[in-house]
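Morning - S-adenosyl-L-homocysteine inputs below, output right after.
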Amino acid sequence: MSQKLKVILRSGKDDAVRRFHPWVFSGAIKKMIGPAAEGCIAEVFSNKDEYLGCGIYQDATIAVRILDFAPARHESFDSSFWKDRIEAALKLRQKANLAGNQDTNVFRLVHGEGDHLPGLIIDHYDGHLVVQVHATGLYPYIDKISEGIQKVYGKNLKSIYDKSRETLPDTFWKDRESRGFLFGEPANTEINGYEGREGLLKVRENGNDFLVDTAGGQKTGFFIDQRENRFLLGRYSEGMKVLNTFSYSGGFSVYALKAGAASVDSVDSSKKALKLSEINSGINGVSERHTAHAGDVMEYLKNTRKDYDIIVLDPPAYAKHHNVRHKAVQGYKRLNLEALKRITGGGILFTFSCSQVVDIKMFQSTVMAAAILAGRRVRILHQLSQPADHPVNIFHPEGQYLKGLVLMVD
Ligand code: SAH
């Protein structure tokens, strides 16, 4: 990886890079000089040979992820580079009162492009860090990244777990092994009735306890991006009958229950996730008002005879690409329609989409279409998004993916 690659852009294709957008698409490249090895340092130049920035190359549609737009050239991206960036990311979380907070010890430490580290996700669980690399070109740097984290955290670090097995394509792993624990020992928590203990740990979020399965759970173990939205649900929940769909480990359920909800029904197709939601309502001392249902959410909404005061809809991303956006929109419409049918007059719907290709305008008009079909009068109380530990680089609007509406259904 010591040899650098010179990447020359086509005329007019330098605009986005000049505006600090960190991706160079392969179609924008006029010429490459030097060995184009996966993970090598790429120096990006305009058609007029002006130096624009420097990043990491990979043989893919996004050919270069720019890590530095400053005139300084990099001979390598060594551990001190990663340390500086990770340190800056940690400082931001301290400013946002997430790091070093008694009531919350789970936060996203690095959010890719939003922290000027395209392709890299690091989540913090009470000193145990889970790393997910989303770009094959970045994977050769995994040890340097780990060293960078160790330098920033020092003795406050408990472990670093590489969970990139799930975020990089299977073909990438054909002749490689993912690394697992890069530092320290896995947290080993034994919980009656839950299979697997490695990487199982307890965290706090806004004073609520959660058991997180970092190794065996979805994503890095917990949907950290919904922290503030779960908190908001708590404000509306006292005395309410709540349905939490796509409930995963019961994040929204626990907040509603602790805020005094009359009852919460959690629905998820994953039995393992539901088990976690039961454990989580148990460790917060609110399990007697909680019921977990295994199954498909649409089926549940269509077949239940119950009406609810509050419904939460937090489905997985229905569209990962533009070409399936239309289908996704139809999916959101049907889902929201069924939920609107099950809400009592004066009830509240928390509805989300985490599909990056469906923007807030499109999402809102989709929910409006569902409201028309349901014949319900609907008002928007809150427009929700992702929290400060999931920052959006203004030059990379693709980073804005989570959107939500809180609706009063008259
Ligand atoms: N709201 C959750 C995160 C939801 S993630 C939180 O705050 O933690 C999406 C969840 O939807 C996953 O747990 C997945 O198992 C579940 N899921 C996906 N498709 C489903 C379906 N058709 N019916 C029920 N659950 C589904």
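Note: The longest helix spans residues 79-95.

O.
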